Amino acid sequence: QAFFCLLLCIPRGSSCPPSCQCTERAGAKAVLCSSRHLEEIPKDIPRDVVFLKLDANSITRIPSNAFRHLSHLEEIDLSRNAIEQIDRAAFKGVAAGLRTLDLSGNRIRSIPKEALLALRAKLRLANNPWHCGCALQEVLWEARLDPDSVRDITCHTAPRQEYVGKPLLQVLDAGANFCSARQRTTDVAMFVTMSGWFAMVIVYVICYVRHNREDSCRHRDHLGSLPSAQARAE
Question: Would you indicate the residue range of the signal peptide (predicted)?
């Protein structure tokens, strides 16, 4: 009975994942899962965690709602993993309170900007094999990046070979705009659409005018035949 009473007295969500260590840091709960050969984010992380270290593991993906139940979370360290995919809703539920998010040293080539839109956290994105394109440029425009690590965001691949191996900031400072090609594509698509509608209107007008002209000719011929028919009747 005493054992079951003890279990009931333990606050819900305060257990620690078996592969991690739970401790206190500045009066706040910290869950330390560094270098534990984890391949995914643990499901049983305490709800009252404030600091979460998942660095130096083998995590490959951050799925949707991965931290949604961790409403007190302020810092996440996911550096030095094998992360390749980040879902659009990966940080849903913790975006407002998160102060630091470390994704450096992974295998991230691109990240959906929707995953970062509501984030106020300071982001560390260095040392990933980034594809320098419009998506990454938009992340730089909209996200709050750690100024100490932004210089280490390097183009692993890019639309032009001359950009490969160079820091993204250097490429952008040189006048590159990866989103201009997308804008041109959008403009061309809009032009083609507008041209199609315009052509349809022209065809409709031509058919309408031709149809009215034919009706007018038939009506005129009909009227012209009326007097001769009356004369034959007399």
Answer: 1-15
Quick one: pLDDT band at residue 85, thresholds 50, 70, 90?
A: very high
**Two structure tokens written together for 79:** 């550096």
Residue 136 is encoded by which pair of tokens? 């990454």
> Which CATH superfamily groups domain 21-177?
Ribonuclease Inhibitor (3.80.10.10)
Tens-digit pLDDT profile for residues 42-60? 989 999 999 999 999 999 9
* Ramachandran bin of 76, using left for φ above 0, alpha for ψ from -120 to 50, beta for the remaining angles: beta
Per the CB < 8 A criterion, the answer to whether 124 and 101 are in contact is yes
| Domain locations along the chain | 21-177, 178-210
Other C-beta atoms closer than 10 Å to the C-beta of 169 total 15
By three-state DSSP, how is residue 151 classified? helix
